[in-house]
Design brief:
Layout lengths: L3 H9 L1 E4 L1 E3 L9 E3 L7 E2 L4 E4 L6 E6 L8 E3 L6 E3 L8
Parallel strand pairs: 1-5, 3-7, 4-6
Antiparallel strand pairs: 2-8, 5-6, 7-8
Length: about 90
């Protein structure tokens, strides 16, 4: 059961949709793999980030400075995501 304090904090969190990108070549950007039923990063920040393909929440309680220069593979659908402001330009 989730504590009332944690539930309140989760409800106040702002969710941002990540940008789906092709898998980056090795050495260009670290690629995190989300483990089943666990977010790749959980901290005390005000933001949550959701997969840009399926909407599954992949990061919880983070600050924007924590999501620079890496991509994350969604456990739910397999899409590779990066923060919207870090998406490589085409």
């Amino acid at each position: 059961m989730i504590s009332p304090c944690r539930t309140e904090k989760l409800n106040a969190m702002r969710t941002i949709e990540m940008t789906v990108i092709p898998t980056p070549p090795r050495g260009v950007m670290p690629l995190l793999q989300e483990r089943a039923a666990r977010h790749a990063i959980v901290d005390g920040g005000p933001l949550a980030f959701a997969c840009g393909s399926c909407g599954h929440e992949v990061l919880e309680g983070v600050h924007t400075v924590q999501i620079r220069n890496f991509a994350i593979r969604c456990h739910s659908c397999g899409a590779v995501n990066t923060s919207p402001e870090r998406a490589p330009s085409s």
